[in-house]
Write a structure and sequence with these properties.
mainly alpha; 3 helices; 92% helix
């Protein structure tokens, strides 16, 4: 999934929490009742606070989940890079060993050639 798609999905999720239809309808009724003088400012506040605290809890859960997911993804990436670097290191070691063996072989050939030229 692309980064912009992830951002849009995250935004939609937050919007669903913030603009929950049921809560908004309850708040509309509470505000209407306040304007009509049916409830006091204290009662309006008591209606607002539970909705807002629930919103905070839900957003917090999503953020914690997102942070945990990002941390796991980053850790997986680091482990993958470490594995890749180990594989590269192993390949480099094998190449160095092959070069060393070929150098030894060349030295043997040079010595034999030098001996045959002296005779």
């Amino acid at each position: 999934m692309s980064k912009s798609q992830e951002d849009k999905d995250f935004k939609r999720l937050i919007e669903r929490i913030v603009f929950d239809e049921g809560e908004l309808n309850e708040l509309k009724i509470a505000i209407s009742n306040f304007n009509k003088g049916i409830i006091t400012p204290k009662q309006l506040k008591q209606n607002l606070l539970p909705c807002r605290s629930l919103m905070v809890e839900e957003v917090t859960k999503i953020l914690i989940y997102s942070l945990n997911w990002a941390q796991i993804s980053a850790q997986t990436s680091v482990e993958s890079n470490f594995t890749n670097s180990n594989q590269l290191s192993l390949a480099n070691d094998q190449l160095r060993q092959e070069i060393a063996e070929r150098n030894e072989l060349l030295e043997v050939i040079v010595k034999k050639l030098a001996l045959s030229c002296k005779k």
